[in-house]
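Continuing the batch. This is chain 6 of the set; chains 1 through 5 are on the previous pages. Same settings as before, nothing changed between runs. Recording input and output for traceability.
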Amino acid sequence: MHENDLRSPAGSRKRRRRVGRGNSSGRGTYAGKGMKGQKSRSGGGVRASFEGGQLSLVKRLPHKRGFKNLFRVEYEPVNLSSLVDLPSGSEVSPESLREKGIIRSLKKPIVILADGEIEQPLTVRAHRVSRTAREKIEAAGGSIDTLPKPVIHRPR
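Output for chain 6:
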């Protein structure tokens, strides 16, 4: 047996009904389209997405709400509670935080938040420090050095 000998089983492939081909086609008079109406006319019928006048699914779905602020700066938050285990007098910088596994990457600027208490004096170098965190660090005898904000290039 060869590929050119293969045939579909009898009756498995049925030709589609060609309507509107005259009386001798066996579909005369109304041509298999029923009686009057939109679907019986030449080129008649409704589009695929038509739902009988009901609000279409495309219009019912939510779509593009609000806006995206191009100037938003996403900070990497660091709480004071994660700085408790550091030795007294140590320097807290983005690089040292990355080495200790407190932050994931150096791509985002660092913000120090005031959740937690701190007793040892630390030298904190960050892009932003909250007012309460600044008060707590200075009360413990530490100092704060603010880093410049990173330049973020945005598409025009």
